[in-house]
Design brief:
alpha+beta, elongated
């Protein structure tokens, strides 16, 4: 009985062991299958997410855009297979839009035709990088760079555009230009008519050394960067200088009972005061003496000239920088003679000389001097003067001022060059000697022609050159032997 009980206990223990092994194996199998299925499920989900993200991509590409200020610019951003992902536009850390919703408060920025970013009324501060971004675990960016082109602008320094300098000093003109790209700056000086002349300088600063009064005027500064129209600003330069006087005539001819006008052109800055003097005595306006000025032109008019009006006059100009004076002579003496005859004579041995002299009183005497010029290849030598004294005839009534005269010179040499001067006298004295007048006599038929003389001279020159070369020919033939002899002597030495 007892032995049967032990046998049954042993069998039970074996059955329990087998059952435990089976249960443990089943549990392990179930646990492994669960873990395997969970891992497989998580792996499939990750692959699905990765597959979904890889399909979202940009169709457009990043680009650099240049636009002029004030225009409208559209930045493209087209995406394929975006799905449920979010698309952002941002500039730096500032978000402009998220998906199809505008975030920025700037009314100039909008989304158009999907996710394209439009910026209207462009301003210089709109320049920079704009990023279109696909928001995911790993963000994808597309960057557009915007460059704003700004037309040039320019301003004068100082803003008044007025510059003052003293004669002989240095002056600097400056203008400041802005724009994008940086403008090129050039300078021009305007003429009195307002038309611009050629360029006189480059860069924002123009320096003028040792300025003269002629450099006063309007200078134009121009800025240009090829965006829109060039910008300009004008600057006025005033050069301060003491008076500078120029007379229209230093010798004025008049007659008693007639009118005389004396003129001074005065340049000065500051504005000068102008005074008139006769023989160092100051003049005051009277009924016969009228003093007037218009711009730089100062005029003294003397009506009904009297004998005491003849003499030396001076025009004196003063300003805070100095004084200037110019002298003139009012005279009743004749004016200088003016020749009116043709320079070529029609005769080989004579010439008809004609001239005119202005004189209010009748001429009393006229002096004519002429001489021949001796010409050769190297120099010209004048002969002695021939002096002819003429008594003028009374002038026509319709010529109250001009005396027309003529005189025929005879016994001249053919094919020669002559020169003449004339001086005239009235009751106030002799006038200034006229300018020298040259004239030419005709060649006689027996004289050699110029062409023939040139041919003879050239032939003589050629023959002379040929003879010189021929005379050196024996020496040229001996030259090689002389050279060899010199070399041998040098070797022996």
């Amino acid at each position: 009985m007892c032995s049967n009980k032990l046998i049954r206990l042993s069998i039970c223990r074996k059955a329990y062991t087998v059952l435990f092994i089976l249960l443990y194996g089943l549990t392990a199998h179930i646990t492994h299958a669960a873990i395997s299925n969970r891992s497989k499920s998580l792996g499939n989900k990750s692959l699905a997410t990765t597959s979904s993200t890889s399909q979202a991509r940009f169709i457009t590409q990043g680009h650099t855009y240049r636009a002029v200020v004030g225009e409208t610019l559209t930045l493209p951003c087209e995406v394929e297979n975006l799905g449920s992902l979010v698309l952002l536009w941002r500039r730096g850390v500032n978000v402009l839009s998220a998906k199809d919703m505008k975030v920025t408060q700037d009314d100039r920025i909008n989304l158009v035709n999907g996710y394209n970013l439009e910026i209207s009324e462009l301003e210089p501060q709109d320049a920079g990088d704009y990023v279109c971004q696909i928001v995911d675990k790993v963000n994808k960016d597309q960057v557009h760079t915007v460059e704003i082109l700004v037309p040039p602008s320019v301003r004068a320094v100082p803003s008044s555009g007025q510059i003052t300098a003293r004669k002989g000093g240095a002056v600097t003109l400056e203008c400041k230009a802005s724009g994008n790209p940086v403008p090129q700056v050039s300078w021009m000086k305007k003429s009195g008519t307002g038309k611009s002349l050629s360029r006189i300088g480059e860069g924002p600063i123009l320096t003028l050394e040792r300025v003269e009064r002629q450099q006063s005027g309007v200078y134009q500064c121009t800025a240009d960067n090829s965006v829109g129209e060039a910008a300009t600003v004008d600057m006025r330069l005033d050069v301060l200088y003491p008076p500078d006087i120029v007379t229209e005539k230093s010798w004025i001819h008049s007659g008693e009972g007639f009118e005389a006008t004396l003129v001074c052109i005065v340049h000065a800055d500051p504005q000068p005061t102008v005074s008139w003097f006769q023989n160092s005595f100051p003049l005051q306006p009277t009924d016969r003496r009228i003093m007037s000025s218009r711009g730089n032109r100062h005029q003294l008019t003397i009506r009904h000239v009297m004998q005491e009006d003849f003499g030396n006059y001076s025009c004196v100009a003063d300003n805070s920088l100095g004084r200037s004076k110019k002298y003139m002579e009012l005279s009743g003496r004749p004016g200088p003679a003016e020749f009116h005859s043709a320079p070529w004579s029609k005769s080989p041995d004579s010439y008809n000389l004609t001239w005119k002299v202005d004189s209010y009183p009748p001429l009393q005497e006229v002096r004519l001097l002429y001489r021949k010029l001796m010409m050769n290849e190297t120099f010209q030598q004048p002969a002695r003067w021939h002096d002819v004294i003429l008594t003028p005839s009374s002038r026509p009534a319709n010529e109250p001022l001009t005396h027309a005269m003529s005189f025929t010179l005879r016994g001249l040499q053919s094919g020669s060059v002559y020169e003449a001067i004339v001086q005239a006298k009235n009751r106030y004295g002799w006038n200034e000697v006229s300018d020298i007048f040259q004239f030419y006599t005709q060649r006689s038929p027996s004289d050699p022609r110029v062409e023939e003389m040139e041919f003879v001279a050239s032939s003589t020159s050629r023959n002379k050159s040929h003879n010189q070369i021929s005379s050196f020919r024996p020496i040229l033939l001996l030259f090689p032997f002389l050279l060899i002899l010199q070399l041998h002597l040098h070797k022996w030495h």
